[in-house]
Backbone:
């Protein structure tokens, strides 16, 4: 009799991975009947004699232990040929598993490998945490708190599920299941997909992917340098199994640097057309291809799909060459300079947002800086991305500083006239209303305080209260008039 179960199938049948073999032997020497049964028989069904259960215990993990070599077609049988796959792939490089079965499975694979093949089955063991439920409990059949991956894949996509599991994952630490994280992963997939659609839609006919233009602008150099650094860091992270860190860096780069900034930065050139547009498109596609490679281990399906649609003759992204750090694509000076521009634009946008100024409203900008050239060169980006109509440079102190909204960033201080930021007519109308109300309050208090009856009959505290009210109203009147002056 031979029973072979993996621990997985044993669990599936509701058996413990360690169980006593369910074979029973009739003790009647004339019968010796053997019975295999889930339920223990009370007596021999053939002769009614006494039965005894087999004393051996089956440890199903021992069959699981064959996994590293039996899956490669290994044959340890005498006179048989060792399989080709086994010769090529064994010993393997990495085993990935959760920590809860280190002894049960990992240890058995190691000593079985040594025993049967004379070699360790793998070089590294990457031990990750468990996926727990939202409350941090272990997922189990009895609690009924398990997640069916197929249902999740149906709803969010395979790549979104993979990304969610890898994100925030650090070796050995458990993570809790979160539907919110899953939604964020799906949104990221949509963002990447839409970016690729936008880029591919605008490419000219016969566009050849993969090459960079001869002439690179400052924003191209900024992007390429950042991407070059990303490739280096992500490769290092993956090599040291910091998968959660690696994927977070790729995600941030794609979302913020590439989609939110660089795509927007190329729009003026692309709408201009010709050589300039083509150059921008070459950089867009070059970096897109690199990003797809870095993301591929984490989101295999969407990256392959976009990869093939960029270049229909390309072979699978799986067998493409991994991105390498390239010294010739490192433009440290330009990267630092352009980062200052990005920082200032971002600060202006925050300021406008705080003041509720619509994006459509154009305003002028005064910059105090030692790097006039860079900001001048990038005026188009201030116009397109920060709603700036003109840039002027100021040396030393700026006039009428109190009428300006100030924005501070590395390398520059910038000022925007408040009168331009807010809608002048609307603001003046609002101030006029406030002024009328303040005038009425002043009048009311004054008439009360000028009334001899009130002064003589009202309690002292009430009179003082009215005087205080008048003071406040007068102060407000003064401030409103000052604000009105600012718009003139
Ligand atoms: Zn019997």
Residues:
């Amino acid at each position: 009799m031979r029973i072979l179960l993996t621990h997985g199938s044993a669990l599936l049948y509701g058996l413990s991975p360690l169980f006593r073999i369910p074979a029973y032997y009739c003790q009647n020497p004339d019968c010796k009947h053997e019975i295999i049964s889930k339920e223990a028989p009370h007596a021999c069904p053939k002769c009614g004699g006494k039965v005894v259960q087999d004393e051996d215990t089956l440890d199903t993990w021992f069959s699981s232990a064959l996994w590293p070599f039996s899956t490669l077609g290994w044959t340890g049988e005498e006179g048989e040929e060792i399989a080709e796959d086994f010769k090529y792939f064994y010993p393997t490089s990495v085993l990935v598993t959760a920590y809860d079965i280190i002894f049960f499975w990992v240890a058995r694979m190691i000593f079985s490998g040594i025993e049967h093949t004379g070699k360790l089955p793998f070089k590294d063991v990457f031990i990750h945490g468990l996926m727990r439920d939202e409350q941090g409990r272990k997922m189990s059949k009895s609690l009924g708190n398990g997640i069916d991956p197929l249902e999740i894949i149906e709803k969010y996509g395979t790549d979104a599920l993979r990304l969610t599991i890898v994100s925030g994952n650090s070796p050995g630490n458990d993570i809790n299941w979160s539907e919110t994280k899953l939604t964020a992963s799906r949104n990221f997939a949509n963002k990447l997909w839409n970016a690729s659609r936008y880029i591919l839609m605008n490419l000219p006919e016969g566009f050849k992917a993969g090459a960079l233009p001869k002439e690179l602008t400052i924003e191209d150099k900024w992007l390429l340098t950042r991407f070059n650094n990303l490739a280096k860091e992500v490769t290092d992270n993956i090599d040291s199994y910091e998968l959660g860190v690696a994927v977070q860096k790729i995600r941030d780069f794609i979302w913020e640097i590439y989609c939110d900034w660089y795509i927007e930065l190329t729009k003026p050139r692309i709408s201009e057309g010709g050589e300039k547009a083509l150059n921008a498109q070459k950089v867009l596609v070059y970096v897109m291809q690199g990003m797809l490679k870095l993301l591929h281990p984490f989101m295999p399906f969407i990256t392959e799909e976009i990869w093939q649609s960029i270049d229909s003759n390309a072979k699978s992204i799986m067998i493409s060459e991994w991105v390498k750090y390239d010294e010739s694509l490192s433009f440290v000076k330009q990267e630092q300079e352009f980062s200052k521009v990005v920082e200032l634009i971002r600060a202006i946008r925050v300021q406008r947002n705080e003041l509720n100024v619509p994006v459509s409203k154009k305003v002028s900008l005064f910059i105090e800086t030692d790097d006039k050239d860079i900001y001048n060169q990038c005026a188009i980006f201030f116009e397109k991305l920060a709603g700036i109509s003109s840039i002027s440079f100021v040396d030393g102190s700026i006039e009428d500083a109190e009428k300006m909204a100030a924005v501070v960033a590395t390398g520059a201080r910038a000022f925007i006239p408040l009168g331009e930021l807010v809608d002048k007519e609307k603001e003046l109308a609002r101030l006029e209303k406030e002024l009328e109300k303040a005038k009425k309050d002043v009048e009311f208090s004054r008439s009360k305080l000028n009334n001899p009856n009130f002064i003589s009959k009202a309690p002292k505290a009430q009179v003082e209260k009215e005087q205080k009210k008048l003071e406040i109203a007068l102060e407000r009147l003064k401030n409103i008039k000052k604000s009105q002056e600012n718009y003139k």
